[in-house]
Amino acid sequence: MREPHIDYAEVFRALPGMVALLTPDLVYADANDDFLRLAGRSREQLLGRYIFDVFPENPNEPAAAGMRETEASMLRTVATGERDTMALLRYDIEDPQRPGLWQEHYWSPVNAPVLGADGKVVLIVHRVEEVTELIRARGGAGDAGRGGSPGPGEDGRARVLEAELYTRARELQEVNERLRTAHAHEREVALALQAAMLPPPGPIGSHDAAVRYRPAIGALNVCGDWYDLVGLDGLDGEGLAVAVGDVVGHGLAAACAMGQLRSALSGATRVADGPAQALEALDRYARSVDGAESTTVVTTFIDWTDHTITYSCAGHPPPALVRPDGTVTFLDGATDPPLAARPVQVPRPQARTSFVEGSTLVLYTDGLIERRTESIDSGLERLAASLAHHREKDPETLADALLADLLPPAGNTDDTALIVLRL
């Protein structure tokens, strides 16, 4: 049986309820028939116009917040790629036939994203429920705002309840706005602190290295990841220690713990006999740092003369070694629990592997490979495939290719640190 042809443009226009489509710049792209009818505007009056040019704020209401809250909700949808449901909203509309006359309206809006092939928002679905008559019929916010008094008995109590619910919904919306502002400020401060503590790598001789840090998109789940490269003078000839770590937690607390642990490991690395001893010293230090428990970290000591990598891992995803022929080996021979999660008297393991010149060593945090809906093995397989495919690229280009291949198009939900080193 052949599937019937569906004209989705006609379906959209016939949808019950008020629905409009807007671009990420908040310009009307389309509106269904109910939206046009209930808003009292023609399609020509809407399409191609900025939403708040069509529906400006009521100048006679100094406390009006409908335009500001609607704009903030839509921009959140664009920034996060997620649906945003607003509290009950008063947003008066000017009568198009009688300029200067404003009609009181109450709305229940929802903004939802339409994503393009690249995972970015290309349209906003703006669905609005007109509840003005319900509020008036129940003696709600409209009458209460004009000083109306409720009637007797049960009907009077119902009116009071409606007005109370409206007031509480508005208060909740204001609290949420303050929380969002506070969270955004904390995120900016934490990211600034993170950037100050994660500078680009210094000169490492003839070996090229690239580092990347990508914060989580639109969330506070940032600032727990770090990377570090430390020159080792104690090895025969010359050497280099490369490490990445991931603090459990987020925001300023995680950024502060990260800074302390990164500095402690950098110092321990310079005097330790090997990566296991460096992690043992870090483990002891982590027990005295608030928020450092269960931090994962992996460190590698590279000996350029012997062409060997000695490594130790504290609960962290294994480094990847890519040989020139495309073979990818995960360095998982010395895995141990995270920091402060094991007896201090038990030595941490370390292992050693050889490499050939032209190989590439890649260290990363779990934001690069982990997805909530799948096992970590699937993420490691994706990483290995991407490394094999791009192995001939220089570290800077390879680092960008890995992020493009492995992070979700809409943005990563966990922060990600990455080091790519050509051996």
Describe this structure in words.
- The model is unreliable at 140-152 (pLDDT under 50).
- α9 (251-271) crosses α10 and α11 (376-390) packs antiparallel against α12.
- The longest helix has 45 residues, at 153-197.
- The relative contact order is 0.09.
- The chain has helices spanning 8-14, 33-39, 43-46, 51-54, 66-80, 132-137, 141-145, 153-197, 251-271, 275-286, 376-390, 395-406; strands at residues 18-22, 28-31, 84-85, 89-90, 93-94, 102-103, 106-115, 121-130, 209-214, 225-232, 239-246, 296-303, 308-314, 320-322, 328-330, 335-336, 351-354, 360-364, 416-422.
- It is elongated and about 85 Å long.
- The strands form 4 sheets. Strands 1, 2, 3, 4, 7 and 8 form a 6-stranded antiparallel β-sheet that branches. Strands 10, 11, 12, 13, 16 and 17 form a 6-stranded mixed β-sheet that branches. It has a 5-stranded antiparallel β-sheet with strand order 9-19-18-14-15, covered by helices on one side.
- The protein has 423 residues and is of the alpha+beta class.
Main β-sheet, in a few words?
Answer: 6 strands, antiparallel
| Radius of gyration, in angstroms, nearest whole number | 29 Å
Question: What's the pLDDT, averaged over the residues?
Answer: 83
Q: Give the percentage of residues in beta strands.
A: 15-25%
Helix percent reads 25-40%
Any idea what the shape is?
A: elongated
User: How many beta-strand runs?
Assistant: 19
By secondary-structure content and strand pairing, the structural class works out as: alpha+beta
> Kindly, what is the distance between the CA atoms of the first and last residues, rounded to a whole number of angstroms?
61 Å
Tally of helical segments:
12
Spans where pLDDT lies below 50 across 5 or more residues: 140-152
